[in-house]
Amino acid sequence: MRSFQILGQSNYAISILLDCLTAIYPNDDILADIVANIPPEQNDSLAYDFATPGVQHRIWMPSEWRPVPDAPCLVGSIGKSRKAIVDFFEQKFHIGPGRYMHTIHPSAVVASTVKTGYGIHISPLSVVAPYAELGNFVVINRTASIGHHTVLGDFVTVNPGAHIAGVCHIGASAVIGAGATVIDRIRIGANTVVGAGSVVTRDLPSNAIAYGSPAKVVREIV
Question: Relative to the CA of 56, which of 74, 126, 130, 220 has its CA 20 to 30 Å away?
Answer without folding.
Answer: 126
